[in-house]
Amino acid sequence: MLDVVVKLVLAVVLGGIIGLEREFSQKPAGLRTNILICAGSTMMMALSGIMIGGVPVGAADSLRIAAGVITGMGFIGAGTIIQAHGHVHGLTTASTLWAVAGLGLVVGAGYYAIAAIYTIILVITLVAFPLIERLIPHRSALHYHVRVAGIEAVDDLRRTAAASRIKLDEISFRKENGAAVLTFILVERLARARAFREKIARLGEIVEIRVD
Q: What is the per-residue pLDDT across 36-52, written as a single tens digit (0 to 9) for each?
């Protein structure tokens, strides 16, 4: 009983450390969620040891418990991922929940030193790596809605994109409120996307440009 209590307390502490970082980052899966996941997976692993009468954690039954927890967390993580307007949100949150479940399994298996080191690695990844990511130029998916004077604008737009070595996706042409609207998706670094927007703004057939 004492061993299980120690494991659960440690799971609450280590899961809480990850949860606090998520709270400070204002993420939907915060302190309570991470503590519950860490403590829950710890309890499942500890329970497997109790049910098989103290057989070492490396036994097949314990390994099946661990596999079931990780698989179940995959479904929970998938529920936190949202795709909207060509952008995917929640991948880091889903990955964090999956990693915290693994942390709980490590604690439940009794590897306390490894659990502490693992927690430090997770915190460093969540806190320090976003600072590094900001230094790396990223491509963004931008949705363009271009009001044009005529269908000829499609050919001019394609020629301008080819000259700029920019690929346009999902190009469509429709009538909207009595005007012609050309829509497409541009996946590019912001600086190059801005330069391309300035080029197409100078085309004679372009009346209005809106970017989502």
A: 998 988 888 887 777 66
H-run or E-run covering 172: strand 168-176
Pairing of strands 206-211, 179-189: unpaired
Q: Take residue 113 and report the two structure tokens written for it.
A: 């030193």
Calpha distance 44→49 (Å, rounded) = 9
Summarize pLDDT for 159-204 with one digit per residue, the tens.
787 787 877 777 777 777 666 787 777 777 777 777 877 887 777 6
d(CA 16, CA 30): 9
Q: Which domains does the chain have, with CATH numbers?
A: 2-133 (no CATH), 139-211 (3.30.70.260)
- Calpha distance 165→160 (Å, rounded): 9
Helix axes 112-133, 2-24, angle to 10 degrees: 10
